[in-house]
Amino acid sequence: MSRYLGTATALTALMAVASVGIASESPLAQQLNALENFQVIAHRGASGHAPESTLPAYELAHEWGVDYLELDAQLTADGEVVIFHDNTLERTSNGEGHIHEHTLAELKALDTGSWFNEANPEQASEDFVGLPMLTLEELFDHFGHTTRYYIETKSPHLNPGLEAALVERLEAYDMVEEGRVLVQSFAQESLLKIQALNPEIPLVQLLWYSPSEGEGTPLVEWNDTTPAPGQMRASDFQRIAEYAVGIGTNARHDGQDVIAADFIELAQQNGLPVHVYTVNEPSEMERLMGLGVNGLFSDYPDRVQALIVE
Ligand code: G3P
Ligand code: CA
After folding, report:
1. 277 Cβ below 6 A of ligand 1
2. Amino acid 309: pLDDT
3. pLDDT number for residue 23
C-alpha cells in the first residue's frame, strides 16, 4: 500500500514538474514543438471558397480553426508589405503590371475579388465584388495572435527590401516570440537574409521538383537548393536544417510522384518536418497523410480537417 502511495506520490510530483515545464515553455517553443504534429495550412486563406488572399478567404479559414493562414508577401513601390500571390496583377485583379511598380494607394484602388466570381460562377457572391488588396498589417490587426501565419517572401528578386520590411512588421506585432509565424521561401538567400535580421524567426525552405527537360527526364529542384529527391542524403537535409525548421515541397508534378516515403522519413530523421503544397483532392490528401507528412497546404482546408481523426 505504502509502496503504491509512494509511486503515486512520485508520479504526482513528476506530473507537477511536467506541467510547470509545459506552463513555462515559451510560445515560440510551443509552436516549434507543434510542428511535430499534423498542421492544416490554409493556402492563400480558404481560397477554394473565396477570392485568394482576401479577408473573406482568411476569415473562413480562421473560423474553421486551421493551424496556419498562408500568404505571399510582396513590397509596393512605397515600401508597404501587401498580400498577393502573382508577380503581376492581371489574373486576380483589375490592375496591370507588377506589384512593385505601384504605390499602396494605387493597389488599394483595385478590385481583387470580382475575378473569382467570373472564374467560379457557382460560388460567386456580391460580398466578393470590390474586395481590396490586404496589407500584412491589416491582416495582423484583424487576427492578432489568435492564429498563426505562414508567410512566403514571394519573388524576392522583384521585391528588394522585402525581408527587412517583413521582419520590422513581425517584430512590431510581437509575432516571433508569441510563436505566431513561419517564414517560407523558395529562395534560400531570402531566408538567410531573414535569419541575419532576426535569428529567432522560424524558417521553412520551399522546394519545387520537376523534370529537367520534359516528361521522363531527371528531376531537378527549381533553384538547385537540393539534389533530385531520389538522391537526397542525410547531409543534404542537414544543410537545410542549419537554418530552417522545416521544408515545404510539391509531391507531384503533372500527376507523377516526385517524392516518396523515404524522402519524407529522411527529412524527418534530420529534424525537418515536411509540409506538402498545394493539395486539394481528398484522395491525395489521404495518400500523403498515410505517408506521414507533417502538414498540407490546401485551398480547401475544410477537406483536410474532415480527414483528420481526433
Ligand atoms: O508557399 C507554398 C506554396 O504556396 C508555394 O506555391 O505558388 O502557391 O506560392 P505558391
Ligand atoms: Ca505561397
Report:
1. yes
2. 77
3. 55
